[in-house]
């Protein structure tokens, strides 16, 4: 386990990443230090993956920086519903004509929309992506665009599509 800025993450061993069904995001059932949960593993842009350890999981497991962790993963086809960014959630609520469309796309595709919108720190670019997302959904598009699904898109943790090294 390591920290990048104020975020705790766990980089998966290469063997664990190789066993996942995708070089991009992958839905998994996980057991971390005996705590079971479902999540989506993120790509690192180097053919590997990493797991975000949010504050709730950190506290539930009473973790400390640098602690070794026992992780078991089981890929699943059952993707958990993504947490929609507030701006995109508001835009969807303001577009009731898209409710049926949004519900009809796969949960995996919903994760792609969230990932695409969140993949920038620039507020103008983000607002443009929210607006374009609504427009694309209205035109029948079921996926946001053609970005590299195996790249690391978290702008706080990546540089040039790759999870940053801290060492």
Automatic annotation (TrEMBL):
Organism domain of life: Bacteria
Family annotation (InterPro entries): AF2212/PG0164-like_sf (IPR037079), DUF1905 (IPR015018)
Pfam family, one: OmdA
Protein name, per record: DUF1905 domain-containing protein
Organism of provenance: Microlunatus phosphovorus (strain ATCC 700054 / DSM 10555 / JCM 9379 / NBRC 101784 / NCIMB 13414 / VKM Ac-1990 / NM-1)
């Amino acid at each position: 386990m390591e920290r990048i800025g104020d975020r705790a993450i766990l980089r998966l061993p290469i063997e664990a990443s190789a066993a996942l069904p995708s070089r991009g995001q992958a839905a998994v059932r996980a057991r971390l230090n005996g705590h079971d949960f479902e999540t989506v593993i993120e790509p690192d842009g180097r053919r590997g993956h990493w797991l975000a350890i949010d504050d709730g999981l950190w506290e539930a497991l009473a973790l400390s920086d640098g602690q070794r962790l026992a992780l078991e993963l089981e890929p699943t086809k059952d993707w958990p519903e993504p947490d929609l960014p507030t701006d995109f959630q508001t835009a969807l609520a303001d577009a009731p004509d898209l409710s049926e469309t949004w519900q009809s796309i796969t949960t995996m595709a919903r994760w792609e929309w969230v990932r695409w919108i969140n993949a920038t720190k620039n507020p103008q670019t983000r607002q443009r992506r929210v607006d374009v997302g609504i427009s694309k959904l209205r035109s029948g598009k079921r996926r946001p665009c053609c970005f590299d699904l195996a790249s690391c898109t978290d702008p706080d943790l990546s540089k040039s599509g790759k999870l940053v090294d801290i060492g």
